[in-house]
Amino acid sequence: MKKWKILYSILFFAVCLLPSLGMFFGKSESSSENRELAEFPSLITEEGLNVEWLPQAGDYFQDHFAFRNELVTANALLNGKLLGTSTAQGVIQGSDNWLYYKDSLNDFLGVELLSDRSLYNIAHSLAMMEENLEARGVDFVFTVAPNKNSLYGENMPYYDSLKVDEENNLARLVPFLEKEGVSYVDLYEAFTGEEEILYHERDSHWNNKGAAFASDLLMTALGKEHDSYENVEYEVRKDYIGDLDEMLYPLATTPEEEIYYNKTLTYAAVGEVESNFDPRITTVNPVKDGSLVMYRDSFGNALVPFFADAYASAYFSRGVPYQLSDVDTMQADTVIVERAERFLPDMAQSPPVLFGTAAVLEEEPKQLDTQGALDVKLSRQGTQIQLTGRVKEEYLDTETRIYLRINGAGTYEAFPMDAVVGEETDSGGFCLYLSQQSVLSEGNRVEVITETDGKLSIVYQSEIKEETNQ
């Protein structure tokens, strides 16, 4: 009996030590999780002895221990198959083998929604962007890729009973887009009108048929001549591995069906492109016309082939904030902004990089305050000047416009935005980009002017110097 106890103890400690010992005999496999893994910490840093070495080493071990993927997968299978729960931080285990991205949960529940001012910031920034592009003869359209559980929430688990509000950010944003006159293609309404499911079960995105459907709607809205895929023959292959499936079961993924169209495409990529997930992709098509710039996120990856095949040249960027200089570089005649529903809060914080257009005020604004704005800063961003700050809440309404007057001369409307202050956001933020010729080398006088219900008011007035990175 004593012998069996000794053998059991040896076996127990061997199993416990195996993940640690295995780290010395082989390189751990890369994780499928959608995050960066911890790096091995240095004992000595520039500041001296690293007093955080032990917890950092613990984080490293947690991310790199041997057989990690195997153990993570085994644990996920036990919880997912037996208990119906997800062990991956970013994945929700639904019914009937459906998986959902947890980042979309607030939208689904209707909690922590954007304020009306934040929604205005998104809509008005897009309207300013569209106005600038239209003045240059460039067509513009904005669209939102719906969250998977916004369209197909019937397989969500018990969360449905925790809903606080049936209206989410997207539903509340649409009236602001309409009021601001933004050219908007409502994919949510279009997808809900389709009986066929056009998203993957174990991925957070639409399938190729859904991408073709969205592409057709966008190009039709733009009046762009293109090939519709409605009647194109396709084959179905069970070979697609979903992103959520890889996150949850890194070594036990379940292939699901994907649509592959039987159509010869005529475009070619410029330079090396590993996949449609690349942050920047340029394509050419000698048998088509038109030039496109598309700002997209991961939903836009599946759109790339459809748009690349419709335009003579196209540039697809995942960069944020949007660099509108791309439009000039590409000599684009069309700009599309595609954003996933769950990223709408980020849109409120990231206005596009675009030179401000001079504004003409109908009357001289009334002086209300000289310190009604906070953190007003002037800094150099490459070859341009950036002015940022926040208007105090008492001088803001939901649809208050913000102007900056520089040195008593040029007046420009700033992009409204949500400014991040510590762990909070302030929806009274603003951002303006100017050419270097618009400001002095030193001692610029800046006035912040608000327009609420047609009334103009100066709420801030001060001389500010350019910030430099020491």
From TrEMBL:
Keywords associated with the record: Alginate biosynthesis, Periplasm, Signal, Transferase
- Annotated ranges, domain AlgX/AlgJ SGNH hydrolase-like: 91-248
One GO biological-process annotation of the entry reads: alginic acid biosynthetic process
Q: Where in the cell is it found?
A: Periplasm
Pfam hit, one: ALGX
Q: Does the keyword Nucleotidyltransferase apply?
A: no
**Principal location listed in the UniProt entry:** periplasm
Q: Which one of the record's GO molecular function terms can you name? A: transferase activity
Alphabetical GO CC annotations of the entry are: periplasmic space
InterPro entries attached here? ALGX/ALGJ_SGNH-like (IPR031811)
Q: Does the keyword Transferase apply?
A: yes
Q: Which pathway, metabolic or otherwise, does it act in? A: Glycan biosynthesis; alginate biosynthesis
Q: What is the protein named? A: AlgX/AlgJ SGNH hydrolase-like domain-containing protein
- Organism, as annotated: Candidatus Blautia faecigallinarum
What does the organism's lineage look like at the top? Bacteria, Bacillati, Bacillota, Clostridia, Lachnospirales
